[in-house]
Each structure stands twice: as C-alpha cells, then as structure tokens.
Amino acid sequence: TLVSLLLPAAAATMYKQWIPNTNFETGSNWDKGRVPCASDVVHFEKNKVVSVFVRSPHALTDMYLPLNGELVLASGAGFIAFDGSWDPGCDSGATVRFADVEHHAWFDPTLWQAVSPGRELEPGGRIFSVDEERVPCHYDDVIFQPETSFRVNVDSSRRVIHLRSISLMGQELSSPEAWASYLRGPSAPLQFHGNSTLQVTGTSCPDKSGCACGNTPDGHRICTALLGTSGRQCPVPACWSPLQPLGHCCRVCGATISLDFTPDFDLQKYRDRLVQALLSQPKYAGVRMAISKVHKARTFLGVIPRSSTPLIQIVLIDDEVGAQTGTAAEQMAADIMEDIAQHGEALGISSGKMEVATGSTFSGQAGSHALSRITVEIVLGLLFGLLLLGGILFLYRKANLR
C-alpha cells in the first residue's frame, strides 16, 4: 500500500549514499567512455591523486601510474602484459586516460542518494528533502558502496563536518576512535581532500522534536553545485510570487507551513500522522511533502539581526499544471491547519502559519492558527518607538533639537 511505501522514508535515521566511484571498470571514469582493453595504453596523470578499485583481471599493453595513488585489487583481480594476440573486442590500440575526479564535491546534492534503513535505494517517492538536506546532515549515516573506490572534495565553510557514522569498503565506522584510526591509514588522504575534516560522532539526534540539518553555512556551495557549475537554472514557477522554503535553492509553487512547537512535540510521530492521515489519500496522490526542523533568522524591527529560532517547516508541492498549479498542495495545507486547530495542543504544536502560491492566486499568508502566541517583536517595537518619540520631545523642549 501507499502508506507502507512511505513509512521507511520517514524513519528517524537517515542514510545517504555517495553515487560516483573511481572504479577501474566504470566506463565513465575514462576519457574514451569505455574500460581500457588489451591493446590500449592506460594513462593516469602523474600529478593526480587517485584511489582505484579493480574488480577483475585485465590485460594491457602499457600503463602509466600516478606518483601518488593506489590500486585496490579485489580477490582474483590484477594486470598482465598483453601478448599481442588478436582480441576481437579490442583493435583500437588507443591511449585511454583516467578522468579527472577532483571536481566531485561533498556538497553537490546530485551526487547523493537517499537510502532506506535496510540499505536499499529509496525510490523517488512522495517524501522529499529540501536541497540542504539532500547532502548528509549532522546526525546522518554516510555510505560509500562496498567494493568501490572514490575521491571526494570536502571543501566547506566549516572546519569540521559532523556525521553519525561512515561505511566504506563494507566496514561501518561509528565511533570517533574507529574513524580516527581510519584517517591515519594510507587510503583516507587519497579518498578525501579539501579544507575541511569529516568527524564521526556515533551519536543520534537527541531531541524528539528533531534536529536541524546543519548545512546552512554551506548552503551557497550546495546551490552552486546544484545550479551554477552545470549551467542549470531554477525552473520558472507557474505561479504568482512563488515561495522560498528555508534550505531550498529554488522557489516553488504550492504551500509552506511553519510550526512553533512545545517540548511535547515529536517530529517522527507527527510526520507519520501526516503521511497516514492525509498524504495517503487518493485526492493527494500528486502531492509531495518535505518536513523537518529548520532555523529561521529573527530580526528586531525587521532590520537588526537577532538569534535564529527553531521551527518545523512543511513544504507541499504538487504535479498540477496551469491555473491549477499548487492547488492540491494548498488544499492539503488547509487540512493540516484544520487538524492543528483541533488537535494542536495535544500534538505539541503551539502555532502554525500557512503560506500558499498557486497558478491562480498571489502568494501570501493564507491562514494561521495560534494556541498561545505573543508577538514579542511588535511589543518591543512599540516600546522602542515610544522611547524614541519621548526622547525627541524632551530634546525639543530643552531647545537642543530644532
């Protein structure tokens, strides 16, 4: 059923699997788009650092190796010199060069695949992640597929990138000590390069209301990788004044809901509630949902930056077109707001604000519900204005200000 397919995506632990590899047998890793054959000359650039996994035996005419690199051989794999006999599948005798893999960046969302708790690839389903959360978050588990080699650039705005665990070459490293030991080995410098360091903590998110991803400092890297370097651009939204979800690179049509919560709020239970009670309904078959904790920057009087405030963000988009774009998402958002009005206090939700942008309406606040909200900014703003006015009147009366 639809519900059973969706539930694994809502699991508390998130696994993210690295997609590219530097395997010898991967055709796209070679400039000719194919694996070298017997009469070819294999050429690794001498100044390029690389780790290459070799699955099977290969006959080659010649091979030029890098000054700093490694060949990781599977059982039975290796290289032999080509004896000159005819090979029906290889008569080119070309020089085949290993591709440059320095550009594979950690913060490129297109290079990661969500994986279920059973370590199987998640199909493109109804639950999605905003772009910052497509890259491994602070409490995520990272997987590099067994029997693959890789090289990844971990340049970051942070000195340290924290993760719960890392699995590579079939081995899971889930403690700081195990990871530190791996970093001292010969392979780590060939696999990871850049100005930042990966740090395994072995700890899960301690808060039942969820934990923010933590990738906001590198949000510009994520969006540049997603859009800038490849020439891709955000699609033109088919709605008036589209919405900009926090942590997402492109504006969207549909609806967003921002929830303030109490200590009783449980993100996992609430996500499951939305999936089972609403998202699984036939009328919402074309709706996709993202839900997570984010941090929204607060300002004083709308100008002076203050600290950020945690909130739960729900993003709803749909597959409607034309004037109907976003209307199914809008209806589901309205149902969520109605549910909050009836059961918000029991769910640990203190207030909710909905914004919509569809093909037939301007975006804006389409509805809100607050169980207990005091707008501190307004109160402080009024006090500040009264004090300023009083000061001006006082100086005027003292004839210091004309």
TrEMBL record:
It is found in: Cell membrane. Signal peptide: none annotated. It is a single-pass type I membrane protein. The keyword Membrane applies. The keyword rRNA-binding does not apply. Keywords: Cell membrane, Membrane, Protein transport, Signal, Transmembrane, Transmembrane helix, Transport. GO terms for cellular component: apical plasma membrane; endocytic vesicle. GO terms for biological process: protein transport; receptor-mediated endocytosis. The chain crosses the membrane at residues 378-396. PANTHER family: AMNIONLESS (PTHR14995), PROTEIN AMNIONLESS (PTHR14995:SF2). This is Protein amnionless. It comes from Eudyptula minor (Little blue penguin). The lineage of its organism: Eukaryota, Metazoa, Chordata, Craniata, Vertebrata.
